[in-house]
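Aim 2 progress update. The chain analyzed this quarter is reproduced below.
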Amino acid sequence: MRRQLYILIMLSIMTSLVVTQSLTVKAYDNLYGVEYDDVIDVAFESWINGIFSNSYTAEGPFRLTVSNQVINSNFTSELLGMKEGEVKPYITWINLDEDVIEYYDTTIVRLVKDSTPDSTLAWRIIRPILITVASLGIVIGGAYAGVKISQRLGIKGCSTCDNKATSKCSRCGENYCASCSSKGCNSCGSRQFVRRQ
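Predicted structure tokens:
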């Protein structure tokens, strides 16, 4: 029975890992918003050292690939996590020439290209189940491993009362303390015991 339980636990853990790796999560959603490598359209008004520079509207937005490799990565890092239609009233940074760059009313107009494939409704249902199964597998597997390790190290407890075992059943191998062994083995009914070393 223990071997079957162990095989079932290992099979459930392996299955959950395989399924988790094969399913993808959508980068842009209500939880995370804009992420690196998304292509987005942005509307804003920019000023350099207090002088008007550019204006982009929802009808004529600025298209941008969200990356930390672009020249004004300070601006793109401020866009991370924003959602479509969300407005950030003021973004500022200072470039290498010590110019003060200001962006007003920065709005995410639309997501043009998502960096990861779209998630499905099935994934949103399956994911909590897989996390629960994996968590249970880890807990049960850890408990099973703990019992096996303690048995290998010789730390034996009585099967009945958890005191230190002094003998074991000669027929089934269950461990018992001195007081519980006088009643006989609970598993097989035998009254023959071998002293533990």
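Residues 24-28 have pLDDT under 50 and may be disordered. The beta strands are 39-48, 51-56, 62-65, 87-94, 100-113, 167-169, 175-176, 193-195. These observations will guide the mutagenesis experiments scheduled for the next reporting period.
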